[in-house]
Amino acid sequence: MTSRSTQAVAGHAVGPASALAGGRTPLAAAEEPALARRRRPAPTRYLLWLLLGLGSVAMIGPFYWMAITSLKPRQELLAFPPTWWPEAFTLDHWRSLNDLTTGSFPVFFRNSLFVTTSITLLTLLTSAAAGYVFAKMDFPGRDRLFWVVLSMMMIPFTVSIIPSYALMSRLGWINTYWALIVPVAVNPFGIFLMRQFISSIPSDLLDAARIDGASEFGIFCRIVIPLSQAALAALAILTFIAQWDNFLWPLVVLNEPDLYTLPLGLAQFRGRVGTDVGATAAGSLVSVIPVLVVYAFAQRKFIEGIALSGLKG
């Protein structure tokens, strides 16, 4: 019995020692199958890659087609089957941007840039201020008033076109920048987004600032605004894109070509007998550049703002 127990103990002692000598421990040997499974992509991952690839093609494809369409001659645009690369490059469509029958394309671009930037800045200001009030100030009827703001999000813009036009006419703002900027400077969605984000800022931090003698305006400017950069960036991108592509409201309130925005200018390439596809593609390519630039500079803050604001209860 003594010799057998001695051999068993020796066997247990030699086993780990031999494993360590070979550079592998029993724990490492047990983990090897799990590590191999982790290194080997699962079938669902291949499916995810396929879906992402198809989504990328669906997103990039229209931009590519728009770019090559602006460089094709008119005869090639009518060819069937269509060509995926221009057989002969031309800049005639780009030159036609300066040969409009009404207005000037650079003027349209300048108007769109001014109007969209003004609306975006005013929306950020009003949304941040209203969001701060709804999130951190207690007054009678606050929650009911916030529900009224939320209900305004359910009203389609087309329903308010006639009363808004009547109001602009009484104020004498038809054919002015005021009619383009003021009616959309207050955004219910922006108020909701900022209220959700500012609610996550600790109230103790604001109370400490009040104890130190800071005013509400000082707290808003020095604490709330710096801490809300992510939500402000997300709201700025969403507002900029929506107003940059706005066609209906400028069409209603503007009659002077010198005040036209880019969507109204691009509509001139659509005639009674057809649409100038090449010129429309060139103008659309120019009009999409500011949106890409704005998103490229603020995409990180945009994603962070949506994650921290839009999903909070």
Fill in the keyword field for this structure:
313 residues; mainly alpha; MetI-like fold; 2 domains; 16 helices; disordered N terminus
Write the topology of this structure:
Elements: H1 2-21, H2 26-39, H3 43-69, H4 74-77, H5 92-95, H6 105-136, H7 142-152, H8 161-171, H9 177-181, H10 188-198, H11 203-211, H12 216-227, H13 229-244, H14 248-253, H15 262-266, H16 277-310
Question: How many distinct beta strands?
Answer: 0
Looking at CATH, which topology of the largest domain would you report? MetI-like fold
Return the structural class: mainly alpha
Question: What is the CATH first-level class name of the largest domain?
Answer: Mainly Alpha
User: What is the CATH architecture annotation of the largest domain?
Assistant: Orthogonal Bundle
Q: How do the helices and strands follow one another from N- to C-terminus?
A: HHHHHHHHHHHHHHHH
Percentage of β-strand residues = under 5%
The radius of gyration computed from the alpha-carbon positions, rounded to a whole number of angstroms, is 31 Å
The domain count comes to: 2
What's the overall average pLDDT, rounded?
A: 80
In which range does the helix fraction lie?
A: over 70%
Spans of at least 5 consecutive residues whose pLDDT stays below 50 are 1-21
CATH level-4 homologous superfamily of the largest domain: MetI-like
**For the terminal residues, how far apart are their CA atoms?**
71 Å
Main beta sheet: strand number and arrangement? none
Question: What count of helical segments does DSSP give?
Answer: 16
Sum up the overall morphology in one term. Answer: globular
